[in-house]
Specification:
Number of strands: 7
Structural class: alpha/beta
Oligomer: single chain
Helix content: 25-40%
Distance between the termini: 52 Å
Strand order of the largest sheet: 3-4-5-6-7
Length: 250
């Protein structure tokens, strides 16, 4: 089933952009290649968003360069076949992300953390390689990034990747082991407290990020604590529903 909306349905098929005019699959619109002035506009938009986030009181921002998002598309030679300074070599393909990070870091307060998420593996021949990830995360840290979230896939349809918790753990652990001093976040397929705690206690990651599990279970923090037999403070309105444990006597 096509994942598109035409103009009649309120879509904007002629306003879809990417590093190169390559469709993710036959179910999506074929994007237009970004012009240099449009790339400049995108970077300025990231800067503007960072300034607004600071004024709004946010304590941390996360630049998303994973899962096939625009910045991720620039990194891969499969989705980026440009012939200008933003395509071709590793240096050129990482230029869009690195320029964006430097610009954001200039306006984002030094005392506030800046995170970046990256897909460590692409799962396709001649695509983004794990060794490139190791080089990239070191570049990011040198330019002021405080933590890198490590995921995989999302940029190429029908990628050949193991998509299970153990493989995710192995990938983030490899990045942490091979880049000493880098703070690493684990993300993806984290669904219970025991699993999250294992990533931290066994030094696979320095932080754990979960999103979909909070959609499935908005009280995930409470259930994760229960998984671990740990007492945490519940909202007063929920206290009567606390599952009885050694910390609960009613």
């Amino acid at each position: 089933m096509p994942c598109t909306s035409d103009k009649k349905a309120g879509g904007w098929p002629d306003k879809v952009y990417a590093p190169s005019s390559i469709s993710f699959s036959g179910q999506f619109w074929t994007p237009q290649e970004l012009r240099l002035d449009q790339i400049e506009a995108v970077q300025k938009a990231f800067v503007s968003a960072a300034i607004r986030a600071d004024k709004a009181g946010f304590d941390v921002i996360d630049i998303h360069a994973a899962y096939g998002n625009l910045l991720n598309q620039f990194l891969s030679p499969l989705s980026n076949i440009r012939t200008d300074k933003y395509g071709g070599s590793f240096e050129n393909r990482t230029r869009m992300l690195m320029e964006t990070i430097r610009r954001v870091r200039q306006v984002w307060p030094k005392e506030k953390p800046l995170f970046v998420s990256v897909s460590a593996l692409e799962g396709a021949e001649q695509g983004w390689e794990f060794q490139e990830t190791l080089v990239l995360v070191k570049m990011l840290v040198n330019d002021g990034v405080d933590l890198c979230e490590i995921s995989q896939g999302g940029n190429i349809a029908n990628a050949e990747l193991r998509m299970d918790p153990e493989s995710r753990k192995d990938v983030v652990g490899r990045v942490k082991r091979e880049t000493p001093g880098l703070l690493v976040g684990a993300v993806g397929l984290i669904s219970n407290g025991i699993q999250a705690n294992d990533l931290l206690e066994n030094n696979f990651a320095d932080a754990v990020f979960s999103a979909r599990q909070f959609i499935r279970n908005p009280s995930f923090v409470l259930s994760a604590a229960h998984d671990l037999g740990t007492s945490i403070k519940w909202p007063k309105q929920y206290e009567c529903a606390r599952v009885k444990t050694k910390y609960c006597f009613f």
